[in-house]
Amino acid sequence: MSLPQKNEYYTYADYYSWDDGKRWELIEGAPYAMSPAPTTTHQSVSGNLYAQFFDFLRGKTCKVFYAPFDVRLNAYDKDDTVVQPDLTVICDRAKLDDKGCKGAPDLVVEILSPSTARHDRVVKFNQYLKAGVLEYWIVDLDTKTLNICTLENGRYFTTVYADTDTAPVKVLNGCTINLSDVFAE
Predict the structure, then answer these.
(1) Whole-structure pTM over 0.90, yes or no?
(2) CB neighbours of residue 121 within 10 Å
(3) Which residues contact 148 (CB under 8 A, 6 or more apart)?
(4) Residue 10 domain-assigned?
(5) Which helix or strand (DSSP H or E) is residue 88 part of?
(6) pLDDT digit string, tens, across residues 93-111
(7) How many other C-beta atoms are found inside a 10 Å radius of the C-beta of residue 58?
């Protein structure tokens, strides 16, 4: 198949056929090229967060996944929105298949980079809200803060945590994340 063009509409079937060695996301049928490899700080923070989620979830029903991992937010409708969050927690195993997640995960983590900050804070925020993602975490490396957006009555309510705080995970009863360890160099 030909590579995606800016003003064309695509579905997951199209997305899945692209084989150009690049990573893409699809938002309501529009293709978005992913940024080059993340910085070492980004990778360190992602790994530290993953480790804490993984340790807590060992032996439990929920699972944590790291990018690249396809999340098809509207897989049972138009199937035209595919994102690759930095981390994803899924508690309903029926949403998992060999290609990733079909439907809204319970928790999504995006770690901001200069080239993706606006996209993550606006475009993906609205997509996650629309899909019904229960918790959306936005990690800001520049300010060393975590914004936790919690879905309540169809809206996200945001709480901000500093790098010295411990953040509760509402969708995982009893789970807290030590941000000092997350942001440790």
Answers:
(1) yes
(2) 15
(3) 135, 136, 137, 158, 159, 160, 161, 167, 170
(4) no
(5) strand 87-90
(6) 999 999 999 999 999 999 9
(7) 7
